[in-house]
Amino acid sequence: QVQLVESGGGLVQPGGSLRLSCAASGSRFTYYVMGWYRQAPGKQRELVATINSEDSTNYADSVKDRFAISRDNAKATVTLQMNSLKPEDTAVYYCNARHLIFTDLDYWGKGTLVTVSS
Length: 118
What we know:
mainly beta, seven-stranded mixed β-sheet, four-stranded antiparallel β-sheet
């Protein structure tokens, strides 16, 4: 079992930056691919970025060159640095942990709201 707690959401103006953090506990952190997903009102949840224990990353095309995902295996945290934010980035952002091998071991945080508006 993995517990995930997100923090760092809020209101930001277009062009601004926010940093989301996710603290994980309960299982060996390096066994999990960590990711950020988001769900905008009326839309399906979508991938934002993932990172494995070797720091190999994957990004949605819509956030490439603006967002950066990183992890600290010693602290069991994953961070999403979001720059050049756009109104269409407004969503609830969820932290995810998926086991490297047993992919049905898939855990979610409760989410943190990011609102990009002037």
